[in-house]
Structure formats: structure tokens, C-alpha cells
Design brief:
Catalytic activity: (2R)-2,3-dihydroxy-3-methylbutanoate + NADP(+) = (2S)-2-acetolactate + NADPH + H(+); (2R,3R)-2,3-dihydroxy-3-methylpentanoate + NADP(+) = (S)-2-ethyl-2-hydroxy-3-oxobutanoate + NADPH + H(+)
Helix content: 40-55%
Order of helices and strands: EEHEHEHEHEHEHEHEHHHHHHHH
Organism: Terribacillus saccharophilus
Low-confidence stretches: 332-339
Bound molecules: NADPH dihydro-nicotinamide-adenine-dinucleotide phosphate, magnesium ion
Shape: globular
Distance between the termini: 26 Å
Number of helices: 15
EC number: 1.1.1.86
Mean pLDDT: 96
Keywords: Amino-acid biosynthesis, Branched-chain amino acid biosynthesis, Magnesium, Metal-binding, NADP, Oxidoreductase
Radius of gyration: 22 Å
CATH topology of the largest domain: Rossmann fold
Largest sheet: 9 strands, mixed
Number of domains: 2
Pathway: Amino-acid biosynthesis; L-isoleucine biosynthesis; L-isoleucine from 2-oxobutanoate: step 2/4; Amino-acid biosynthesis; L-valine biosynthesis; L-valine from pyruvate: step 2/4
CATH class of the largest domain: Alpha Beta
């Protein structure tokens, strides 16, 4: 089994006395900045004027422009969206990297796909939480954490690994487990996970199930509860106890249906498609398409997003969730955008 590193295995002294700039105060940024600060580290937040700026001030941080935060810091964590990072890096970070500083990422995309080329005189590593930023924050406040990967791209100081681990501990990841990876592995597995399983695979599965039921004449509300709402309850059981634990809780009828019908829906053909998705990630085709889409101001992204918002599962779901206020309790304190 791979070596999993925990809270008590990690010395954090190496990061004490260093100034950490958290660039961006969105999903990950707000969680890293607050958790690190509450872990006793010296944090400065670098953002532009606006919503995030106001929120960071309200949360009691030392808030500056990305340029000034990077200038003041020893450790610079890039938590602006991946597609904006190359421009923010050029404008505000690059000039402020001094020998021995550390440039840190929460996802390897820009370094792995050569959109950011760090100079050779700084440490470069990633600390990538395996969960949404809002859970990085919420679990920390509950005394728990979200697991994280760390990977060293460049170790100039000779202490990159220790600093990366102290950082991961500071955001609470040591309570859940920290694993070593590389920029390549983190980037490719993260993109694959979100495309094939966690986000893309799941939303397509849920919509296909919902459409199959409603097209057969069943009530959309019933289809919503069946194919979307109940999913969380099932996933919670898988999260706690694996597939076996989930199957223990469901009826034997459901378990038999799981065994005989699951492989009819997700089959060898599906897996062959997953392999194609993985190949497009590995050979850079996905990255290239996403970079071009952004350069063209996201015509397809925006069109698909608008269409998805109006899918019947969304209109029905919005109405039903209004009547279940308890389902949104976990979203207190969260901004509109939450991605993995
Ligand atoms: P968000 O979109 O949630 O947040 C972006 C932040 O960057 C906002 O505070 C935004 O401020 C700020 N920002 C945007 N442009 C600029 C700019 N030009 N100058 C300064 N600040 C700017 O990003 P995420 O937290 O989702 O992603 C950050 C990184 O973390 C990415 O590398 C992502 O892959 C990685 N990651 C994200 C996960 C997640 O849960 N979301 C999970 C694991 C990794 P404003 O309000 O002004 O727009
Ligand atoms: Mg991810
Ligand atoms: Mg991701």
C-alpha cells in the first residue's frame, strides 16, 4: 500500500516564520487562507477588488493585490481559476519570485501542460485537496479534514517536501491522509476523475436515468427523488463503508438489481469510452481544447451551461428543494461557484 502520511507525522516548524500568499479567495482560496491562519501560520491574501476582496477583509485577513501579496511572501499558492493562472502569473507573480521562494499549486494543469514555466531558482510543488474547497473549510472547523496529494516538481531549497507537508497539515489534510504524487499523475487523474466519474459521468448518468423515467410517462418529481435526491444518501453510505457497506443497507432486491443491471448500463463499451477520455487527457487534446475555448471567450461552455440550467431535472429539482430547506444547510457560507 502507498505510504499515507498523517497529522502527527509532520513537523510544521519549517513553515513557521514564512509568509504564505494565498492568491485567490474562491472555493479553495478561502479555505486555505482561513485554515492556515487558524493553524498558526502567517497568511496574506492576494486578490483583485471585488466580492472576494470584500469577503477576505470580512474574514479578517491581510488583503492586498496579487502582486503585493506575492512580493511580500515566501510561499505563493496559486488559487485563481486554472484558465486565468497564466495571465495572473505573468502579471503579478513572476517578477516577485525570489531565490528560495516556493510557488505552489492545488492542481498541476498549468505546469504539466506548459502554460506556466517556473524559473529554476524556486521550489515548485503542489498540494491538491481531494475535495471541494468548501469542504476543506467545513471539515477543518469540525476537527476533520479532506485528504490531499502533494507532489514536488522542483526542490531548490532542499526542504520542498517538508514545506509541502507542513502546508498540507496546515489546511487540515493530515487528519484525513496525505499521499505523494507527481504533477503528471495528479493532473491526469484529477481531470479523469472529474470528467468520467465524479462530475461528467455522474451528471450524465443521473440525467439519462431521469429522462428514461419521464419519457416513459412517470412523474418528474418521482424521477427526481429516485435519480438525484437519493443519490446523496447512497453515496454517503459508500463514503462511510465502501460498496459493501452501501449494499448492506439496501434491500437484497436492490442489491440483486445492482449486480445484474448495473453492468448492463455501465459496460465494456462505457469503459472503452473512458479509455478514450483518458487518452485525450494524456495526449493533451483535452487541455488544448479547453485553452482554446477560453481564448474564444467560452462560446460552447456558455451555450451548454445555459441549456443545462433549463433541463427539466433542474427546474423540478429547484421547486422540490425549496420545500426541503434542510438540504441546503450544508451550503451556508458557500459562494455560488463550487467545482472540484
Ligand atoms: P474559484 O473560481 O473558486 O476562485 C477563484 C478566485 O480567484 C476568486 O477569489 C477570484 O476573485 C480570484 N481571481 C480571479 N481572477 C483574479 C485575478 N486576475 N487576480 C486576483 N484574483 C483573481 O477557484 P477554485 O478555488 O475552484 O480553483 C483554484 C485552484 O484550485 C485551481 O487550480 C483548481 O484546479 C484547484 N482546485 C480546486 C478545487 C475546488 O474545490 N474548487 C479542488 C482542488 C483543486 P473574484 O471574486 O475577484 O473573481
Ligand atoms: Mg479534483
Ligand atoms: Mg480538478
Amino acid at each position: 500500500m502507498a505510504k499515507v502520511i498523517y497529522h502527527n507525522d509532520i513537523q510544521e516548524e519549517v513553515l513557521k516564520g514564512k509568509k504564505i500568499a494565498v492568491i485567490g479567495y474562491g472555493s479553495q482560496g478561502h479555505a486555505h487562507a482561513q485554515n492556515l491562519k487558524e493553524s498558526g501560520f502567517d497568511v496574506v491574501v492576494g486578490v483583485r477588488q471585488g466580492k472576494s476582496w470584500d469577503q477576505a477583509i470580512e474574514d479578517g485577513h491581510d488583503v492586498r493585490s496579487a502582486f503585493e501579496a506575492a512580493q511580500a511572501a515566501d510561499i505563493i499558492m496559486m488559487l485563481v481559476p486554472d484558465e486565468l493562472q497564466p495571465a495572473v502569473y505573468k502579471e503579478s507573480i513572476e517578477k516577485n519570485l525570489e531565490t528560495g521562494n516556493a510557488l505552489v499549486f492545488a492542481h498541476g494543469f498549468n505546469v504539466h501542460f506548459n502554460q506556466i514555466s517556473p524559473p529554476s531558482n524556486v521550489d515548485v510543488f503542489l498540494v491538491a485537496p481531494k475535495g471541494p474547497g468548501h469542504l476543506v473549510r467545513r471539515t477543518f472547523t469540525e476537527g476533520a479534514g479532506v485528504p490531499a496529494l502533494f507532489g514536488i516538481y522542483q526542490d531548490v531549497s532542499g526542504t520542498a517536501k517538508e514545506v509541502a507537508l507542513a502546508y498540507a497539515k496546515g489546511i487540515g489534510a493530515g487528519r484525513a491522509g496525505i499521499l505523494e504524487t507527481t504533477f503528471q499523475e495528479e493532473t491526469e487523474t484529477d481531470l479523469f476523475g472529474e470528467q468520467a466519474v465524479l462530475c461528467g459521468g455522474l451528471t450524465s448518468l443521473v440525467k439519462a436515468g431521469f429522462e428514461t423515467l419521464t419519457e416513459a410517462g412517470y412523474q418528474p418529481e418521482v424521477a427526481y427523488f429516485e435519480c438525484m435526491h437519493e443519490l446523496k444518501l447512497i453515496v454517503d453510505l459508500m463514503y462511510e463503508d465502501g460498496l459493501e457497506g452501501m449494499r448492506y443497507s439496501i434491500s437484497d432486491t436492490a442489491q440483486w438489481g445492482d449486480f445484474v443491471s448495473g453492468p448492463r448500463v455501465v459496460n465494456d463499451e462505457t469503459k472503452a469510452r473512458m479509455k478514450e477520455v483518458l487518452e485525450d487527457i494524456q495526449n493533451g487534446a483535452f487541455a488544448k481544447g479547453w485553452i482554446l475555448e477560453n481564448q474564444a471567450n467560452r462560446p460552447q461552455f456558455n451555450a451548454i451551461n445555459a441549456k443545462e440550467t433549463n433541463h427539466q431535472i433542474e427546474t423540478v429539482g429547484r421547486e422540490l428543494r425549496e420545500l426541503m430547506p434542510f438540504v441546503k444547510q450544508g451550503k451556508k457560507n458557500q459562494s455560488a461557484e463550487e467545482v472540484i
